[in-house]
């Protein structure tokens, strides 16, 4: 595919500007991606330096003046695939070009002489061994114009007729270079080719050695010699899988002991394959837990890297096998990490790099190491891009370029290009099989205690419903606007986010919204549940809420009843978290571990046997992370999971959304459905659910007692539901005068309006006070409610207007 070919995007008029998000109908996805890189390359203001002697067919240094990052570009002609760039995109995109190559070609083509040279192409006298990048990386040979017949004959023993290195020739590649040197012909072998050959040979040696050393039942004894704890059979299998792969993703379900499997794999790599330094990258809250686990299971030295930059530099240089850092400092410490040159990098809770656009993900992927162990129970939480981003750290070539990966597996709406489903999910698992290992608790059921899940449907007070419905109306209007126009402004999206958040907060307690009132039965229901659980003195409970204020309410209730507890939230320093866990585990008087989602990852809380979720997270993976703190290896009692769900609310509707996201995860990793369709765009579908749910409970029902339990029949597919009886609403006090209700309603309106304005200002919501640019006058903009409500209000005001008109003097009219 030549740049000058009329079939390529190069022949398109320069005025044509291609979108980075929408593919033109007249282009294939490959043509579109090539054209985008070509378009972007022409716009770059990079620095170009010729590193060779030829003015065109040479190696160039392309430098970004802002990042100071430099890539090596080799130019051999205009055709796709003949040039080379050292950037990551060129290695994985399988297009044969990148923005750096296109930038260099654009610079060279600006003069007629260089353009003519490029069109003629490059035919060097020497031969080259290089990597041919594509769906698979292959070692290829380009024979030079001055190669003697004897060289061509010798090369045929190593390379097939297409110039590709034969699989059996990897082991004897040095012999080819020796033979070529003896024939007096120059052969240039590039660094990436040598690296790939070494990678293939190392992998073959590792597989053979592990089979020889650990096969035939020898694994248990060899691992017992270096570990202070015995492993379950599936954990030994996991450690050997990691060591055999060299770079692997361990995606076992939460609670199956990924940490000890990683430590065991490192011991194999250290004892049998020469690994001498390991770097653990994890959330800040888990640094000291990693240090404790390392010392507990293998006894190697481990240093937590923390403090100011100069202190961290000294800690990287410390004489310790393991260095433990948190994700947030990797960007600042990348140079020190590169100097450390770890042999093994462990990423714990690797979903932290699921968004490939973030600086964190991009920096972590630049950490060099021959071995890598990625640990996460949730490599896929919401979108397929997340899995692709995490796998890139393990093997950036495995899933191919992101644009092609999404093209193969996403199903989009032809009109809007929105994602409406996923397909061919099982093939992803097949592709990842050599580097990904996942076991669920069902797979090792005999080694885990039973888990029982229940959803308790809890009623809401009138005050909670007021907040919930007020924000539901905002959501409904924004959804209608989105459905009509196909987009929302940033201000609308912010309003939507705030309204949804306030609806969810109201499901817990009005205190989360107004910080004053305390209306909501969940804390009372929790107190009743705890009293039942604590009838047995050995029972302990972990209570989760997304919001600190909700946990504050629970903490007050526990203190009032003299119940001992520990409280973990994002503001607790990492060092103190270890002490909180130890206290909860060892102190019999500490009955409750109260936590936000800061404690939902990486912590071992098997001292408890009950998990209470006061609210449901948006993401099923977060919910499983919470439960996995208790239902995990080392737990010897049945685990009870209780979810408090406000009935008939957005929280109730989230049960269906959680089920869909779980099915996407299962389709990729757990052998579930191969195709999953949402039927509509996710946002549209979800908002319709929100509308139907919030409208499904009329005001009259909310203020009356719950009907007898036998009057309702639960759908079979739902989890077991325990209903909490709703108390009747208090009857309103008699009015002091006919105008008293009107005055109270007006005062309530003004109070609510003031609270809304104050809350919006605190949360950065769009102001309801606007200024007319023409007159300079300020006015209050109030969202219009439901049309039926407006009609009702107008009807109610008509008699008052007629009455006022009758008493108004004619001149005043």
Structure summary:
The chain is built from 29 helices and 26 strands. By secondary structure, the protein is an alpha/beta fold.
Task: Explain what this protein looks like in three dimensions.
The chain is α/β, with parallel strands linked by helices and 813 residues long. The chain folds into four domains: 9-198, no CATH class; 217-398 and 435-447, 3-Layer(aba) Sandwich (Rossmann fold), CATH 3.40.50; 452-457 and 522-647 and 714-730, P-loop containing nucleotide triphosphate hydrolases (Rossmann fold, 3-Layer(aba) Sandwich); 746-807, no CATH class. 44% of the residues lie in helices and 14% in strands. The protein is built from 29 helices and 26 strands. It has a seven-stranded parallel sheet, sandwiched between helices. Strands 19-20-18-21-22-17-24 form a seven-stranded parallel sheet, sandwiched between helices. The longest helix is centred in the first third of the chain and has 24 residues, at 191-214. The protein is globular and about 90 Å long.
Write the layout of secondary structure elements.
Elements: H1 29-43, E1 47-50, E2 59-63, E3 70-74, E4 84-85, H2 88-93, H3 99-108, H4 112-120, E5 127-132, E6 138-142, H5 149-155, H6 173-182, E7 187-189, H7 191-214, H8 219-224, H9 233-245, E8 247-250, H10 258-273, E9 278-282, H11 287-297, E10 302-304, H12 309-316, E11 322-326, H13 330-340, E12 344-348, H14 359-364, E13 371-375, H15 384-394, H16 402-409, E14 410-412, E15 419-422, H17 425-432, E16 436-437, E17 451-458, H18 462-485, H19 490-508, H20 511-514, H21 522-533, E18 541-544, H22 548-560, E19 564-568, H23 574-586, E20 590-595, E21 610-613, H24 620-628, E22 639-646, H25 650-669, E23 676-677, H26 682-695, H27 699-702, E24 721-723, H28 740-763, E25 769-771, E26 778-780, H29 787-807
Parallel strand pairs: 5-7, 8-13, 8-16, 9-11, 9-12, 10-11, 12-13, 17-22, 17-24, 18-20, 18-21, 19-20, 21-22
Antiparallel strand pairs: 1-2, 2-3, 3-4, 5-6, 14-15, 15-23, 25-26
Helix pairs in contact: 1-3, 7-9, 9-10, 12-13, 17-25, 18-19, 18-26, 25-26
